[in-house]
Amino acid sequence: MIGAVKALSLHRRAVPPDGQGGDLLARLPCGADQRRDLRDEPDRPWHSGVVNWLNHRFVTGLGGRAVVHLQNPTIVDRRSEPQPDLMLLEPRQDFYRTAHPTSDDAFLVVEVAHTSLPQDRRRKLPLYARTGVREVWIVNRRADAVDVFRGPSRRGYRDHARYERGQQVAPSVFPDLRLAVDDLLGPPPPGRAPEE
Question: Residue 2: which H helix or E strand, with range?
Fold first, then answer.
């Protein structure tokens, strides 16, 4: 049914050791009152536009230094296979044709969040930290900023910084690729005047 989104029950599933878990989205347990699909944002123009802009900037700015992985599965543990909006991965000759990337392969995970912000913060971020993803960006529409998390541990990320309009952000492994937060976010959300 076009235009309708059905809430899906979240659950965990086993991912085979070879990483060939198929196209199903990994789901995490949550209460009955919180049943939501962890698939990223509904197709909203802002969400898609941010992913497209980041893809363009990373591909043109990094060349062969990283593989840009868009909305595809990654194996973070034996039971979870989330699909981040974008990942920067270690280059591999096979471009990950033989197995999905793992946390060890990820230079950076990016989640673009508006309505999915609570899920990204409470469910995905701790999962990424526990499994050793080096750096996570949450492009936060509500705050009109980019939240950057580094220093993963079993208890969460040790470092958090917020980059706002007028600032620049860069992946820690590619400090030469500085992105203007204004360009990344695009026009301010409705009802929020641009800062002078």
Answer: none
